[in-house]
Amino acid sequence: MASTEIIPGVYAIRGKFAGEFGFIASYLIISESEALIIDPGTAGDPGDKVKKTLKEFGLNHKSDLVGIVCTHGHPDHAGGAGRLRRETGAPIMIHSADADLLRDPSSFLNERLLMDRAQRLAMKFDKSPLRVNYRDLEPDRLLSSGDNIQVGNLSLRVIPTRGHSAGHCCFLEPKEKILFSGDEVNNFPNDPRKFYVDLSGSIVAKLAAIDTLSKLGIDYLLPTHDVPALFGDVQLQFEGVRDGIIHLQDTILAHLEARGEADVEQLEFDIQQSRSVPIPTTLGALLATTIQVTLEGLAEAGLVKDLGKGIWVII
């Protein structure tokens, strides 16, 4: 079998090991002979296993897959959407704030990450799950807060979180208390404190989302880059994410106070050298981008200010 059952009707289709990003998982929901895929993965993996999995369950990929849902528009979650739609005819669904990442995939590197020209050029040869190697496409349905996605007799509630990216959504199945969390919770495997956000994201929104999600009474937390968390372990994951965000904020403030003033590059160096918080290491732009967004959140809280030309100080 290409899939692993989480609970009856919900299956994880796990892709190949992707280094720091772990095993990228797509989730398949089957109800009343209808199927829905959440996060088709990269342009090749694990979405290429969806047809095989549907066949193993006696379903027709041309008629029984009713939707391809993306938690957000990053390449490791939505890169495989176009290929899967061509093979199945199923509609692609994504929040409107991340739809432009499908319409213009190059905008992920050009607008969502803090990168210079040389870094963008290097990404063309990158082999990580964040490489952009797929064509532009128009989504079929734009999601918004309060929407529901139907598959058989199950209904998923759309919960925009807007932390990891402006269009990030989680999806709640209330009967079994399942949350498909994408990258908002457990952004990397084995450590819920480790995370990144893109330039459209928000630390303030991420903290608020974690607070909201933690009160939903979730029994099954299904992230894309980590193993599912069940029952009592779910709250530990939420607490870990919250601790990671607050720890990063405190670390940035401490380094900024020690320097007097600093730019993102200097803070990035200090954080890497201190090794005081878990940080992404595969792609340097992920840390730099997250520091920038965190500084903007701290500025919103009145704790720091930008003096201009990217120089930050504590107020």
Q: Which features characterize this protein?
A:
alpha/beta, Metallo-beta-lactamase, Chain A, 2 domains, 10 helices, seven-stranded mixed beta sheet, 315 residues, six-stranded mixed beta sheet, Arc Repressor Mutant, subunit A
User: Main β-sheet: number of strands, strand sense, barrel status?
Assistant: 7 strands, mixed
Count structural domains.
2
Distance between the termini: 57 Å
- Named at the architecture level, the CATH assignment of the largest domain is 4-Layer Sandwich
The average pLDDT is: 95
The topology string of helices and strands comes to EEEEHEHHEHHHEEEEEHEEHHHEE
- Please mark out the parts with pLDDT under 50 across 5 or more consecutive residues, or reply none: none
The H-level CATH homologous superfamily of the largest domain, spelled out, is Ribonuclease Z/Hydroxyacylglutathione hydrolase-like
User: Proportion of β residues?
Assistant: 15-25%
Radius of gyration: 19 Å
